[in-house]
Amino acid sequence: MQRRAVDLDPLNAHTRAGLGEIEFRGGKLGEAEADLKKAHELRPDDFLSSLLLSEIHVMQGRPQDALAEIERVGYDAYRRFLYAIAYHALGRKKESDAALRELIAKYQAIDPYLIAEVYAFRNQSDESFGWLDRAYAKRDDNLIFTKVEPLLKNLHSDPRFAGFLKKLNLPTD
Q1: What's the pLDDT tens digit per position in 109-155?
Q2: Overall pTM > 0.90
Q3: Spatial separation of the C-alpha atoms in residues 34 and 47, rounded to whole Å
Q4: What is the CATH number assigned to the segment(s) 1-74?
Q5: C-alpha to C-alpha distances, 25 to 11, 21, 124, nearest whole angstrom
């Protein structure tokens, strides 16, 4: 349906960024990157395209490319989150830890899901599940992405992940 919307209105940056997000969450990183770059060309201030392009660069093993993209992200919490994962991927532990500490200090009440994602990406499962529980208690909107969130893939083999999906009433298959 989103592809059809892009076909009908190819110059709509918002629609194209939405398609890029669907592709990203579906694991089609190359396609997502192309659509998000196009959305960014159409509307350079598009928030979603810069956010997801940063994540894609990290997931493609290009965290250095993510650093420049992160600066375009307008919301500080997302920048802290992105720096925490990009610096971790670069092996820059001190900077990753500093970004995560800042994210927690400033945004723990607002964005616990982002904190859970950072911990999951860093293979710190216990901490990640603790923050997922906080996100659940807060009814964090991002919980809808739990099953398909690429940054949570390190949790998939943990039995607690299936239990958490069940708690969210999401299929565990």
Answers
A1: 999 999 999 999 999 999 999 999 999 999 999 999 999 999 999 99
A2: yes
A3: 16
A4: 1.25.40.10
A5: 22, 6, 22
